[in-house]
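[Q] Does anyone have a clean structure-token version of this?
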Amino acid sequence: MSYLVGSLSFAIIISKLMKMDDPRSYGSGNAGATNVMRSGNKKAAALTLLGDLVKGLLVVVVARVIMYGQPSGDSIVGLCGLFVVIGHVLPIFFKFKGGKGVATAVGVMLGFNLWLFIGVLITWILVFKLSRISALAAIVAALLSPLFAYLFANGGYFGFHEGNGAYFGATLMVAAIVVLKHKSNIIRMIKNEEHAFKQK
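[A] Here you go.
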């Protein structure tokens, strides 16, 4: 069920509802909010971002409610978080051609632990402010997310005890997916060819 919810690609759904071109047909060809932004329609990009984030959060919250107090409940919640991201990246409803999983991963991490989410969000904002490159911000935030999960969601550190090692493991796997999906961006950054948003 988590995978099927993840397969609801809001970049494609919103674009169809707003009678826009399929986001996989222009820009980077990625079905995500950043590429929808390249169409010039900020409303569509914002709705895409919100939809992809909320589906990740919703899956984790529902899983936590269902598995509350159950043996190995946190492990099931972690797997649900992982599979909603896999669904976003490889959506069965859209010929397995989805987005890079950034917004959905952020929603999942918010569901795991508020402090994990805050750490990832602050990292993304700081890196983007300095570089104006969305992909670089996403990659750095993803790479640091397992550290934040270890500190905040692994239990005991800084007094924030929420979940267990299952959330750390799930965050590690989600981060790996996000970084791997940015392989082409990494190559372009090495060649100094990656698109940067202009400073206003």
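[Q] Thanks! Anything notable?
[A] Residues 50 and 103 are 8 Å apart (CA to CA).
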